[in-house]
């Protein structure tokens, strides 16, 4: 079933806390895992790289893997500003001016780790359990930012683990992430096309395809709204998904409109979720003027 949520705040604020509560509102749609993609304001600072070390973390084995990651970053001409362990994650800030796709492929293939996200503004944090449990582990409520998207997952076609949890970062493009509710039925055909063009995939989750598919189109110079319009016609299946970039959040719904989505636009606040109960967590006790997008539609909002 799964549940998705996204929010753009009128001014920078407690984006992590808002997403925790929104996802708690639709947690019944997906109790297996919960994930967050959060954005702070662009500040021209270093890239933020989040690496998933599985169960190793701050252990001798984890430090050995982290050392290998550092070596590969240096081989690609990157300069590490800071690095720290956060449970199963390794958070690195680095200066790097090159193409992030070969850098990330080099890290994953050379160190045997998994990259959760990279960008100037984006950080993806996901884990097994509820939104409040992941918040307790990674202190998401203290994260200040401008916008973000999140996901609660009910695993229907693949195992329950962090690798297959949402959000998915879009390879090859800084600061892009997606969350998805539904099924892509032409997944294998589209995946083969992208693999032939040099893209790599980490999982068998069809939602990962959406992220790479969008990244491929964005790197060709197309605008986000055009990419979303094309996705409605090119992706088969029943789907509702959200995509976030450094300065925008957008959605696309399949022509059948089988997967729910509700939108709130109020005084500069933009909020999207699978169910209205998630929107009520933002503005409790108030009758909200929400609407449900029509099947086969798409839209973007800018920060």
What does this structure look like?
The model has no long low-confidence stretch (mean pLDDT 93). A seven-stranded antiparallel sheet has the order 7-2-8-1-14-13-15. A five-stranded antiparallel sheet has the order 9-10-11-12-16. A four-stranded antiparallel sheet has the order 4-5-3-6, with helices on one face. The protein has a domain at 3-35 and 147-302: 4-Layer Sandwich (Glutamine Phosphoribosylpyrophosphate, subunit 1, domain 1). The chain is an alpha+beta fold and 303 residues long. It has helices spanning 15-25, 60-75, 100-111, 131-138, 187-196, 206-219, 224-234, 276-280; strands at residues 3-13, 33-39, 47-52, 79-86, 89-95, 114-119, 122-128, 145-153, 168-169, 177-184, 237-245, 248-253, 262-266, 269-273, 290-291, 298-302. The radius of gyration is 18 Å and the shape is globular. The two termini are 29 Å apart.
């Amino acid at each position: 079933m799964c549940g998705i949520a996204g929010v753009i705040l009128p001014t920078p604020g407690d984006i992590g806390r808002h997403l925790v509560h929104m996802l708690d509102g639709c947690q019944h749609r997906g109790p297996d895992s919960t994930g967050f993609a959060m954005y702070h304001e662009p500040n021209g600072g270093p890239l933020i790289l989040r690496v998933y070390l599985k169960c190793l973390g701050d252990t001798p084995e984890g430090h050995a893997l982290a050392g290998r990651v550092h070596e590969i970053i240096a081989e690609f001409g990157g300069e590490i500003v800071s690095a720290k362990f956060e449970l199963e994650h390794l958070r690195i800030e680095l200066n790097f001016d090159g193409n992030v796709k070969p850098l990330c492929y080099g890290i994953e293939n050379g160190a045997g780790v998994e990259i959760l996200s990279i960008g100037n503004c984006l950080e993806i944090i996901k884990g097994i359990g509820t939104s409040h449990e992941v918040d307790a582990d990674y202190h998401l409520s203290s994260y200040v930012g401008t916008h973000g998207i999140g996901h609660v997952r009910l695993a229907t076609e693949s195992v329950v683990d962090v690798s297959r949890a949402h959000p998915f970062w879009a390879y090859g493009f800084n600061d892009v992430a997606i969350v998805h509710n539904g099924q892509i039925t032409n997944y294998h055909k589209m995946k083969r096309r992208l693999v032939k063009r040099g893209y790599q995939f980490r999982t068998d989750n069809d939602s990962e395809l959406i992220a790479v598919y969008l990244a491929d189109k964005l790197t060709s110079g197309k605008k986000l709204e055009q990419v979303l319009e094309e996705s409605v016609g090119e992706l088969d299946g029943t789907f509702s998904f959200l995509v976030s970039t450094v300065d925008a959040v957008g959605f696309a719904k399949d022509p059948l409109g089988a997967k729910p989505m509700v939108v709130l636009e109020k005084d500069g606040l933009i909020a999207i979720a699978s169910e209205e109960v998630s929107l009520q967590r933002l503005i409790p006790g108030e009758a909200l003027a929400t609407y449900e997008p029509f099947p086969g539609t798409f839209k973007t909002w800018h920060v």
